[in-house]
């Protein structure tokens, strides 16, 4: 018998890994649920319905010759390993000259399989396993800690200031960086997930100017296009060699399914990330679809969808406080999601109520949101992704009825749609 023993053979930090969890671990997408859990773009991709030119030039065609064409019969070739054309489109989008007169170039870019690849690649690039550390500011995006644990990198946590500002505690961050030279990276999320708040540019500038710390500030701007125009600091990487700005096409561009993320950085940092990556990490279909989304017509659709979602966000902010049992908005309104307290019958924010609302909404009403009550400073909170107009209408009705039931204010008769949902409930 082989002496193989998984428990002693695998790396201890991987055996102990607490994997990323999402609401879809609990509730499957059965095609009927309203999915307001993962901050996707409810209005769909930034692609015109008839805009995806599919060609079939087949053997002999060169991959990437027309990056905005989906060449199905050319898929036997590996994709372009450098993605210069796609990178130029990203640079054109983020060169606004709002923060610097300098201009981004493809040398400033790493593109990856979602921004999750860049989150992991930076850790592998800068943190020696078992020795170096990552600074994070909870409440924040869960993949930072999962990736850190997978890379055997420990966390230094400097919580954000309490809600509703959820601003950076800049003096504490500066002190932590002064005290511990093994911190190599600081992951800051702006607008924050789950806070929805944009971080202050002057706080970020103070951290970038730390007089003794030898490390990088990474700003995750996954939701930046839902914020005010020109709020992205991507072009600031031309000013600060210790700044990285992460972006993704998964949110405002509505392309979570293609897995395309980017890290803007000083050319020397971008070169390290590019040296480290698998050679063909961006597939040809991903590259073609991303190029279309970043074309003039794609950008126009993205901006229209963002405007539609922001209108529904304003509607939620106006309507939610009218529902009995909905507490305070705990974060900002700079993203396509909102963080709200759920109140028990004593009027207190509480996790039992929030969890019961989360479960009943999904199982009985077919509306999946995200329970965030166990995150730092988010007691009793649900994170609600902004949906389409119809989804928001259904969500508001379902939430009102669910809160009445959970708070013991009477059973509310289900509407026809809910009866169907309950009959077909799909729990993962
Ligand atoms: C703050 C933040 N960063 C990054 C990501 C991951 O994005 P991607 O789909 O590009 O991997 C998410 C996804 O929810 C997120 O909320």
Terminal Cα separation, in Å? Answer: 37 Å
Return the CATH class of the largest domain: Alpha Beta
Mean pLDDT reading: 93
Structural class, by secondary structure, is alpha/beta
Bin the strand percentage: 5-15%
What is the CATH superfamily label of the largest domain? Type I PLP-dependent aspartate aminotransferase-like (Major domain)
Largest sheet data: 7 strands, mixed
List all distinct small molecules, including ions and cofactors, that are bound in this structure.
pyridoxal-5'-phosphate
Number of domains: 2
- Helix content class: 25-40%
In the CATH hierarchy, the architecture of the largest domain is 3-Layer(aba) Sandwich
State the low-pLDDT regions, or none: none
Determine Rg (CA atoms, Å). Answer: 22 Å
SSE order: HHHEEEHEHEHEHEHEEEHHHEEHEEEHH
Per the CATH scheme, the topology name of the largest domain is Aspartate Aminotransferase, domain 2
| Strand elements, count | 15
């Amino acid at each position: 018998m082989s002496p193989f023993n998984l428990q002693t053979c695998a790396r201890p930090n991987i055996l102990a890994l607490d994997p990323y969890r999402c609401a879809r671990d609990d509730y499957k997408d059965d095609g009927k649920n309203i999915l307001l859990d993962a901050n996707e773009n409810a209005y769909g991709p930034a692609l015109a319905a008839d805009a995806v030119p599919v060609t079939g030039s087949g053997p002999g065609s060169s991959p990437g010759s027309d990056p905005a064409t989906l060449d199905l019969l050319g898929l036997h070739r590996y994709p372009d390993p450098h993605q210069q054309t796609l990178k130029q489109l990203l640079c054109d989008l983020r060169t606004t000259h709002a923060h610097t007169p300098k201009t981004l170039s493809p040398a400033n870019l790493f593109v990856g399989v979602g921004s999750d690849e860049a989150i992991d690649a930076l850790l592998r690039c800068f943190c020696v396993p078992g020795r170096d550390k990552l600074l994070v500011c909870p409440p924040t995006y869960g993949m930072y800690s999962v990736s850190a644990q997978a890379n055997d990198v420990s966390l230094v946590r400097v919580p954000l200031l309490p809600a509703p500002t959820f601003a950076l505690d800049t003096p504490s961050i500066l002190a932590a960086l002064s005290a511990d030279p093994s911190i190599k990276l600081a992951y800051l999320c702006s607008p924050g997930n789950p806070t929805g708040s944009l971080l202050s540019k002057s706080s970020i500038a103070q951290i970038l100017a730390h007089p003794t710390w030898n490390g990088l500030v990474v700003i995750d701007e996954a939701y930046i296009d839902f914020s005010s125009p020109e709020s992205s600091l991507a072009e600031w990487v031309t000013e600060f060699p210790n700044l990285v700005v992460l972006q993704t096409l998964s949110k405002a561009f509505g392309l979570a399914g293609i897995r395309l993320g980017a890290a803007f950085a000083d050319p020397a940092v971008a070169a390290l990330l590019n040296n480290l990556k698998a050679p063909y990490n961006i597939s040809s279909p991903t590259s073609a679809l991303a190029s279309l989304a970043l074309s003039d017509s794609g950008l126009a659709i993205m901006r229209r969808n963002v405007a539609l979602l922001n209108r529904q966000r304003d509607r939620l902010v106006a309507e939610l406080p009218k529902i009995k049992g909905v507490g305070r908005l705990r974060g900002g309104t700079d993203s396509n999601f909102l963080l709200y307290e759920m109140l028990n019958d004593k009027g207190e924010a509480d996790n039992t109520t929030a969890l019961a609302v989360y479960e009943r909404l999904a199982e009985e009403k077919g509306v999946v949101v995200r329970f965030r009550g166990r995150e730092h400073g988010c007691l009793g909170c649900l994170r609600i992704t902004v949906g389409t107009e119809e989804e928001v209408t259904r969500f508001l009705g379902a939430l009102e009825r669910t809160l009445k039931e959970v708070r013991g204010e009477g059973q509310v008769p289900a509407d026809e749609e809910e009866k169907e949902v309950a009959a077909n409930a799909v729990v993962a």
